[in-house]
Amino acid sequence: MIQSQEKPDRVLVRVRDLTIQKADEVVWVRARVHTSRAKGKQCFLVLRQQQFNVQALVAVGDHASKQMVKFAANINKESIVDVEGVVRKVNQKIGSCTQQDVELHVQKIYVISLAEPRLPLQLDDAVRPEAEGEEEGRATVNQDTRLDNRVIDLRTSTSQAVFRLQSGICHLFRETLINKGF
């Protein structure tokens, strides 16, 4: 049996709460690695939590070595990581992330749960409609693959949106019936 011998003393901040008001604060974030790309002595990670994501930067400097940058670049997509970093305001909006005004400058990174190097489907392919993928010659995911790998398919923004709508409708019906004395 694998058990942790100690409980780390960290307060995790949600990705949606990373805003300009938290600029220059040191925070801990637990999220999935959505994408990573290394570029010289730095690595850009996109960390995702539900429908929110933020760009994280691991760069060679006081807090990161060249080996740490290489380690971060080789973390598999969909792995769960704990990241300690400083929230920094950016000069130019980050268009590919929901948190566009800030990025996370990584000081420490721990892999909590390493994903398989090769997943049965990629989220980018699962989001793409089949007709659009065929026209452009890009990969799409068929229904059987989606159902066989439902845990991964539920992480797509489309699936998340469907369940949020369903939840909102159920909430409205429940509220209306309660207000009418049912």
How do you describe this structure in short?
This protein has 2 domains: 12-113, Nucleic acid-binding proteins (OB fold (Dihydrolipoamide Acetyltransferase, E2P), Beta Barrel), CATH 2.40.50.140; 123-180, no CATH class. Helix content is 29%, strand content 29%. The chain has 6 helices and 5 strands; from the N terminus they run βββαββααααα.
**Major sheet strand order:** 1-2-3-5-4
Q: Distance between termini?
A: 49 Å
Q: What fraction of residues sit in β-strands?
A: 25-35%
CATH topology of the largest domain: OB fold (Dihydrolipoamide Acetyltransferase, E2P)
What number of structural domains do the residues give? 2
CATH class of the largest domain, anyone?
A: Mainly Beta
Structural class based on helices, strands and sheet pairing: alpha+beta
CATH second-level architecture of the largest domain: Beta Barrel
CATH superfamily of the largest domain: Nucleic acid-binding proteins
InterPro entries: aa-tRNA-synth_II/BPL/LPL, Asp-tRNA_synthase_2, NA-bd_OB-fold, NA-bd_OB_tRNA
Domain OB: 27-112
Keywords: Cytoplasm
Protein name: Aspartyl-tRNA synthetase
